[in-house]
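Here comes my example:
=====
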Amino acid sequence: MTDVDVRARRDGGRAAVAARSAPAELADQAARLTAAMDATVNGEAARHGLTRADFDVLAALRGAAPEHRLKPTELSVVCRLSSGGTSNVIRRMTESGYVVREADLRDGRSSWAQLTEEGLRVCERIQDTVDTVHARRLAGLPPGVVDALTALLAQAVGALEAAPEGS
């Protein structure tokens, strides 16, 4: 066992990170942050009998104020779901009474998915609980750190998304 292996075991693997590049470490830390925050969302959605995709669709519709409705193709993009996955979620949410489908009166080939009052209530309950848990967990950070990290991550994401593929 090497000296790095011994240090990695002693400090939870952090010593081995020193040999990685800064971009690899950034990706790893972002993934760990995402996993920690997603666990709260996924758990709270499950407590309400929903999958993460179900909650994401409800949240996207909630954010489409004031009418709380989007076309399935828009939901696919916003929620990063396939068209088939979006159709399945809309069907489940319609059966649950959280979403209604309405024909598009301007385009007979299309329809709208609209959040119901019950869907809005469930979505808000989940989001309120998630926000409370996240705030409690992040409260130990010094003032301004969450805002600073958010701004820095937004800059990193912007740079990565603006860069041509493969560069």
